[in-house]
Amino acid sequence: MKNGNQSINPINTNTLISQMGLTKREYFAAMAMQGLLSNTDVDTRKTDGLTRSCVILADALLSQLESLK
After folding, report:
1. Is position 16 within any domain?
2. How many structural domains does the chain have?
3. Pairing of β 11-12 and β 17-18
4. Cα separation of 52 and 33, whole Å?
């Protein structure tokens, strides 16, 4: 996962690219959580398993994207 810690919205200031905001990993985990929480069958009281699953899904997506290069 080479680029998982890169910003999803880098700001180019002509000489430097500043890493601001969410990383790609954080963004993908948030999108996975949003999708899972939209399912009314998901038990939201089990937060440890839910958050762990979101990070695993984000890492899997980043790994798959890297392998396609």
Report:
1. no
2. 1
3. antiparallel
4. 10
Using the structure block, give the residue that is written with the tokens 């002509």.
Answer: 14
Read off the pLDDT of each residue in 14-38 and give the average, rounded to a whole number: 84
Q: Dig out the tokens for 6 from the structure.
A: 């890169």
pTM equals 0.76
pLDDT tens readout for residues 44-59: 888 888 999 999 999 9
Q: From CA 26, how far away is CA 3, in angstroms rounded?
A: 12
Give the domain extent around 31.
Answer: 1-11+23-69
pLDDT digits (tens, 9 = 90+) for 27-47: 999 999 999 999 888 888 888
DSSP the chain: --STTSBSS-EE-SS-EE--S-BHHHHHHHHHHHHHHTSTTS-TT-HHHHHHHHHHHHHHHHHHHHHT-
Cross-strand bridge partners of residue 17: 12
